[in-house]
Automatic annotation (TrEMBL):
Domain Amidohydrolase intervals: 122-407
NCBIfam families: hutI
Protein name (Swiss-Prot/TrEMBL): Imidazolonepropionase
A single GO BP: L-histidine catabolic process to glutamate and formamide
An example Gene Ontology CC term for this record: cytoplasm
Gene3D superfamilies attached to this UniProt entry: Metal-dependent hydrolases, Urease, subunit C, domain 1
Keywords attached to this entry: Cytoplasm, Histidine metabolism, Hydrolase, Iron, Metal-binding, Zinc
A GO molecular-function annotation: imidazolonepropionase activity
Domain of life: Bacteria
Source organism of this protein record: Sphingobacterium psychroaquaticum
């Protein structure tokens, strides 16, 4: 049994005892001063005053002393990304900023379909390489769990290629990837038939293979005018549920409709919500579905932010994720984006940290990560600073010193 004592830290941000839902004040962050973290076999067995922990340490405990003043916080969970892709949409970005509409960008060869074409042209090995590079870029920011969607394949074989690439990339990474099937991202232009026929084809042919190969436990869909309607998605989600898949939804991005479906199906999360009104906010607040804000897409598209303040005040659970993708959210910087959302929506530090740790973990159905407390996985990051407030204050420019996953520093 491997035993480690890490410390002393100026502060450890525990986040223990914060409820899953609703507004949070910074008093609830549970900041432990002059503290240490004791680990056995990758799990936290004690957190407390460092001098006490050191005095009680057994001879076989390895002492790890951080250099200078450092603080420790739970490592981050990015619960919504599209980091499996090929190609580049810088031209879409330039056109959009020059005033082009969605339709004009699509007509110029841009949009989701252009990424589908590049992703289909890429080999599985090329996709694996891209996933590894982007996952490591997130890891250096302190992210140790990353959800990764398919959705740029949009045929049985190409969706399988994407999900197999995510599985292969996992073998080379210390961070955990959580794969999600987003075959319902849009109806591919080369499918002959309507939206419902495409969705039936996917459910009938792809769902059993996903189960057989163990490629994912999660099904996502984009409910929007440019993608699928609530009516079209309902039978698709019924089939997904019959297979035992968890459901998650791209909801209310430009028009409302997705969040009602998400709540009706008991989805783990409803993501985007930039267009949600009081009605959708109330619905989400009364449900167990986690509301996921994607400020990277708001910044990328120059659109409204998710009404995060309203969601929290009404009692919803709020997570924040990067939505990293080549089109709407090319930045891929979680803390920068969360800090921007916090200034726009007036989120407390506690609400920000909860949104990128245990509340985001919950959206992925991970119950024992995202907090620093006894019995939780020893997944934490350290920063060279004496006050955790500097982390959000510096809006992403303060980078972690160490990144610990299951009791091991993976950032070397
Ligand atoms: O989450 N909203 C739909 N899908 C992605 C965008 C994907 C793309 O533009 O390539 C999103 O923002
Ligand atoms: Fe997305």
């Amino acid at each position: 049994m491997q035993k480690k004592l890490i410390g002393p830290f100026k502060q450890v941000l525990s986040l223990a005892d914060i409820p899953l839902k609703g507004a949070i004040s910074d008093q609830q962050l549970h900041v432990i001063p002059e503290s240490g973290i004791r680990i056995e076999d990758g799990k936290i067995v004690e957190i407390g005053t460092y001098s006490d922990l050191k005095a009680a340490a057994t001879a076989d405990t390895v002492l790890i002393v951080p250099e200078g003043d450092q603080v420790a916080v739970p490592s981050y969970v990015d619960c919504h990304t599209h980091i499996a892709f090929a190609g580049n949409r810088a031209n879409d970005f330039a056109l959009r900023n020059a005033g082009a509409t969605y339709l004009e960008i699509a007509q110029a060869g841009g949009g989701i379909w252009s990424t589908v074409q590049h992703t289909r042209e890429a080999s599985e090995a090329e996709l694996v390489k891209g996933i590894i590079e982007r996952a490591n870029f997130l890891m250096a920011q302190g992210v140790t769990t990353i959800e990764v969607k398919s959705g740029y394949g949009l045929s049985i074989l190409e969706e399988l290629k994407m999900l197999r690439a995510i599985k292969e990339a996992q073998k080379e990474l210390s961070v955990t990837l959580i794969p999600t099937c987003l075959a319902a991202h849009m109806k591919p232009r080369d499918f002959e038939g309507d939206n419902s026929a495409y969705l039936s084809m996917v459910a009938d042919n792809l769902f059993p293979l996903l189960k057989e190969e163990g490629l994912t436990t999660r099904i996502d869909a984009f409910i929007e005018q440019s993608a699928f309607s609530a009516e079209e998605i309902t039978p698709y989600f019924e089939k997904a549920r019959a297979y035992g898949f968890d459901i998650t939804v791209h909801a209310d991005q430009f028009t409302t409709s997705g969040s009602a479906v998400a709540v009706a199906f008991g989805a783990r999360s409803a993501d985007h919500l930039e267009a949600s009104t009081e009605q959708e906010v109330a619905l989400l607040a009364q449900s167990d579905t986690i509301a996921v804000a994607l400020p990277g897409a708001s910044v990328g598209l120059g659109c409204a932010f998710t009404p995060a303040r309203q969601l929290l005040d009404q009692g919803a659970s709020l997570a924040i994720a990067t939505d990293w993708n080549p089109g709407s959210a090319p930045m891929g910087q979680l803390m920068a984006q969360a800090s921007i959302l916090a200034t726009a929506q007036k989120l407390s530090n506690a609400e920000l940290f909860a949104a990128i740790t245990f509340r985001a973990a919950h959206a992925l159905n991970l119950r024992d990560s995202g907090r620093l407390a006894v019995g939780e996985q020893a997944d934490f990051i350290t920063y060279k600073t004496d006050n955790y407030q500097n982390i959000t204050y510096l809006q992403g420019s303060l980078q972690p010193e160490q990144v610990w996953k299951n009791g091991t520093n993976i950032f070397t």
